[in-house]
Amino acid sequence: MQLLPFVAPRTDAGRALVERPGDCRLFIDGEWRSPLGGEWIETLDPATGRPLARIASGSAADVDTAVAAARRALSGPWARMVPAERSAVLARIADLIEAEIDALAEIESLDQGKPLGLARWAELPGAAAQFRYFAGLVHGIEGAVVAPSVTYQPEGREVHAWTLREPVGVVGAIVPWNSPLILTAMKVAPALAAGCSIVLKPAELTSLSALRLADIVARAGVPKGVFNVVTGYGATAGAALASHPGVDKIAFTGSTATGRAIVRASADNLARVTLELGGKSPAIVLPDAELDLAIPGIANGIFGNGGQVCVANSRVYAHEDIFDALVDGLAAQAAGLALGHQLNPDTAMRPLVSAAQAERVAGFVDEARRDGASIVCGGDRLGETGAFFAPTIVADIGGSHRISQEEVFGPVLVVHRYRDLDAVVGQANDSPYGLAASVWTRSFSDAHRLSRRIEAGTVWINTHSMFDPALTIGGFKQSGYGRDSGRQALDNYLEWKTICAVV
Ligand SMILES: NC(=O)C1=CN([C@@H]2O[C@H](COP(=O)(O)OP(=O)(O)OC[C@H]3O[C@@H](n4cnc5c(N)ncnc54)[C@H](O)[C@@H]3O)[C@@H](O)[C@H]2O)C=CC1
Ligand SMILES: O=C(O)/C=C/C=C(\O)C(=O)O
Question: What number of helices (H) and strands (E) belong to the chain?
Answer without folding.
Answer: 18, 25
